[in-house]
Each structure stands twice: as structure tokens, then as C-alpha cells.
Amino acid sequence: MTDPWPWETDTPLERARRVARSYREALETANPALCERLDRKVSEFGQTWIQPVEVRWEQLSAKDIENLLGIPATTIRAWASKGRITKLTADDGSPVYMAEEVRSVAAQSRRKAT
Fold first, then answer.
1. Domain-by-domain residue ranges, the chain?
2. Which single residue of 4, 37, 53, 59 has CA 20 to 30 Å from 94?
3. CA angle 85, 88, 91 (to 5 degrees)
4. 54-114 architecture in CATH?
5. Sign of the four-CA dihedral 34, 40, 44, 49
6. φ and ψ at 105, to 5 degrees?
7. Amino acid 113: pLDDT
8. How far is residue 36 from each of residues 16, 26, 39, 106, 108, measured CA to CA in Å?
9. How far apart are CA 80 and CA 83, in angstroms?
10. Contact status, residue 12 vs residue 4, Cβ threshold 8 Å
């Protein structure tokens, strides 16, 4: 059976987050005050990922990609050292990676594992 999920590179965590965000968007439309209260409550528990944040996807640190995509930073660094992804340098001299390139390599790795 073919998986009908439209974003084939999503991890199970990303799928769950997309579904949760869809429900959050519906709640925000139906009852903005309640949505804001729930956002504050889950933030108290350290779960700020549900709230919309504008992210510059082009270049992110390994830790930022780990937080957003659930791919361990150590894996990202290992892929870069093996030449599987490109390691770039941010303006401050820190290493950054192309998030979409990381997603693509992760998807390839998942397909090979199955």
C-alpha cells in the first residue's frame, strides 16, 4: 500500500507536528483567545515548537536542525565530514548546514533502511 502522506521526507515526529499545527491553526481561527492561553500553557512546559515561528531555512546550525527535524546534530556533523552534505560557515564563523539538504539525505537514508 502506498503511503498517501504528501511530504515523503517527514519523520514520524514531523508528521505528528504537522498534524498538531493543523489543529492549532484551526483553534486559532475559531477561538484566538483560547489558542493564546494554550500556547502560554505549553510554553510553560517548554513546548514552544507548536507556536508559529518564522525560520530561515536556508542555513541552520546542526543543533537548530536537530531541534526542528529530530535528526541528531552528531549525525549531521558526521554526514558533513563524510561529504554527504555541505558544511558552510556563518557570518560569525560557526558551521551551518542547508536544512533541505539534510532533509534529503535523511530521507534517502530512511528509504535505504527499509
1. 10-53, 54-114
2. 53
3. 160
4. Orthogonal Bundle (1.10)
5. positive
6. -65, -40
7. 67
8. 21, 13, 5, 34, 38
9. 5
10. no
Can you tell me which residue has the cell 541552520? 60
Chain segment 10-67, per-residue pLDDT in tens: 889 889 988 999 999 999 999 999 999 999 999 999 988 888 766 566 889 999 999 8
Does the structure show a pLDDT above 60 at 107? yes
Do the bridges between strand 87-89 and strand 95-97 make them parallel or antiparallel, or are there none, so unpaired? antiparallel
- pTM for this predicted structure: 0.54
Q: pLDDT band for 101, please (50, 70, 90 cuts).
A: very high
